[in-house]
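ingest -> validate -> predict -> emit
validate: passed (alphabet ok, no gaps, 180 aa)
predict: started
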Amino acid sequence: MDKAHSRGGSPVGDSDGALSPLLDPSRLQTERRAATDRLLARLKALDGTHTAQTPRAYAQRYVRQQEALILGLLNAGVGTEEILTDLALAFSSIPTAEFRHAIAQLRDRQRKQIGASPATPSARPASAPPPKASSEAPSGPAASTPSAPDRRPDESDEDYRLRKALEGPPDQSRQFIGER
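emit:
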C-alpha cells in the first residue's frame, strides 16, 4: 500500500518504514528565505565586530573570503599583479603590499593542501597519469582521434582537439618560462 502512496503524491515511506508527508515547495521556499535572512543577519553582526582592524588583517580576511575566485583567476592564467591592480582600484585605503602578502599566504596554503609545486593552468590532478614525452604524441589525422595515447582521462574530445591544436606538432614545441 505504501508503494501506491509514494506514486500518487501522498505520503512516502521513510527509511524506518513510517509514512511522512511530501514536502510543500512553496513552504520550503519561504522557510529557505527566512533561514538565509537569519544567516545573513548573523554574518552582518559578525562583520560589524571586525570593522576596527589593521589593513593587513582586513586584506587577509578579504582574500580568504574570495579564495575560490582568486584561485580561479590565478589558475586561468591571470597574474598576481593584475589581481593586485584590481584590488588596489577597489580598496584605495588598503596598501597593495597587504594584499600581496595575503595572496602569497593563499598560494602557500594551496601548495600545502595539494602537496605540490605552485598551481599553474597546466597543473594536472594527482590522479592523472604523468604526461608522455612529446615525441610519443601523435601527429596528423591520428592526433584528432579520441583514442590517442596522450589523451588525459578527464579530457573531453573537444578539449583534446583544442589542446592538440594549441600544442602543435611535437617537432615545433617550445619551452615556456618555467618549463625545463
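Confidence is low (pLDDT under 50) at residues 1-9, 118-146.
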